[in-house]
Design goal:
Two copies of one chain form a homodimer. The first copy, chain A, is mostly helical. Chain A contains 15 helices and two strands. Chain A has one domain: Farnesyl Diphosphate Synthase (Orthogonal Bundle).
């Protein structure tokens, strides 16, 4: 039986070494923006999105060199979104993964531009390496009808009373869409059949939403060590969170239910599904 | 003989009506970001880049419906770059084309996100409508080795003495690359032969650099009516400009020489080149 920790470590190393090659060197001019891009990309992210891409691809087909680039491009998009999300005009987070946020380590201007550069580099890689339909799908997932739309509503929700429907909408858009797309990217690259793609899409949706709910829970219950940033930041900014709208216990139950549904969607794949299933467990285990 | 003013007006109307259809409606949720995207896209831009795409395409081949979308995507990228460039952490411009900048009309947070959304929407359109190699080329032209690289050096040049080589590097990257890409996009969509593409690439480079030099000159010599924003903003921020490094008269001569070189590169095309040639004249006439 595969040890999921070993699997995650191995894939993480593979992704990191590929990101190292895909990103411009820190010595290349203009050095500030290249150093900034690397600062955030190599800030200790768990690589959940690209690992999901690789795992989904391996589940349905053969893993090829190009698909690793596609996975890395999705990690770049995730990183760009975190950089812009931390800006003073957005969540105003001074820390990220235990280190100063990019705009604190560099400047706000460089942080905006490093995010923009990662965004462009991701599409340069996707256009060169991904199936065309997937490039369109990624752009849709992160646009104003996807991730950015979620961030807009998240920003505008501060200090407001939201309905359960609204908070679910925010979490789906700002977080779950990109995670679902990462899973689908792997499935599409691997040549998934229609039913396989549908099952993996469901898996991605459930894991994606659970991941954000658990993030909310950790913001209330976690420690600085777990989060790498100040605990209670959501409450301080009166953010729309699951614990605020549903309460802590119900939020925990909802996350567990979503993870179970994600695992159930893998049943048709049989015993080969153990990696994705264990990754789902791993996500929920963060709750402690 | 074609009247270039009529040509520009006609293409402008075509581009505007297509942008109208490509952008999410102002009523679609989240309305703030969709209103913001529209506010900036319909702020009275001259549509130079998409017009160059259409004119280059018509010069070498047949104009198709899809290519209009490609042209509009380039205008969205240009708009996103202006939005981020105007931010307080960048050029801190309160006005753009005679109207409050997006971050003044909305908020800084919405301005960052609206720029990001236009960036993503542009790639959604390009991936669906442009030849694959062109999507890669656009991404390269606007990344850290292209437009963003120029903006980084521009930002970092404030208050510094730059060499002529450095200021040329900044202008080529922050402005000329996207204009060259707009011309090349049209040529590639139109199915240009190698020699045609080389000639049009040269045209785009020269017009692109001349355009930014003239912008610098207008910042010194123009009026609020010409610029739609405060005159002398570059000087106030101690920006690296051509007039500062080369003097006003030499800058003017360099712009005129570049425009002549742009027009010369069109000679092999014969009399069909009149539109692109007149657009080059039009760019230089802004100097007055």
């Amino acid at each position: 039986m595969l040890n999921v920790q070993d699997y995650l470590r191995e894939k993480c190393a593979l992704i990191d070494s590929r990101l190292e090659r895909l990103l411009p060197s820190a010595e290349e001019s203009p050095t500030s923006v290249h150093q900034a891009m690397r600062y955030s990309v190599f800030a200790g992210g768990k690589r959940l999105r690209p690992i999901l891409t690789l795992a989904a691809c391996e589940l349905v087909g053969e893993m090829k060199e190009d698909f690793l680039d596609v996975a890395c491009a999705l990690e770049m998009i995730h990183t760009y979104s975190l950089i812009h999300d931390d800006l003073p005009c957005m969540d105003d987070d001074d820390f990220r993964r235990g280190k100063p946020s990019l705009h604190k380590a560099f400047t706000v201007g460089i942080a905006v531009l490093a995010g923009d550069a990662l965004h462009a580099l991701a599409f340069e890689i996707l256009a060169a390496k991904a199936p065309l339909a997937l490039v369109v799908e990624v752009a849709q997932a992160i646009g104003s009808r996807g991730m950015i739309g979620g961030q807009v509503l998240d920003l505008e929700s501060e200090g407001k009373e939201l309905t359960p429907h609204q908070v679910e909408y925010i979490h789906q858009h700002k977080t779950a869409f990109l995670i679902r797309t990462a899973v689908r990217a792997g499935a599409i690259c691997g040549g998934a059949e229609e039913k396989q793609l549908a099952a993996l899409t469901l898996y991605g949706e459930r894991v994606g939403l659970a991941f954000q709910i658990i993030d909310d829970i950790l913001d209330v219950r976690g420690s600085y060590e777990d989060l790498g940033k100040e605990v209670g930041a959501d409450q301080a900014r009166e953010k729309a969170t699951y614990p605020k709208v549903f309460g802590l216990e119900d939020s925990r139950e909802m996350a567990e239910k979503l993870i179970q549904e994600a695992k159930d969607s893998l049943v048709p794949f049989g015993p080969d599904t153990h990696v994705l299933s264990k990754i789902a467990d791993f996500v929920v285990q963060r709750m402690g």
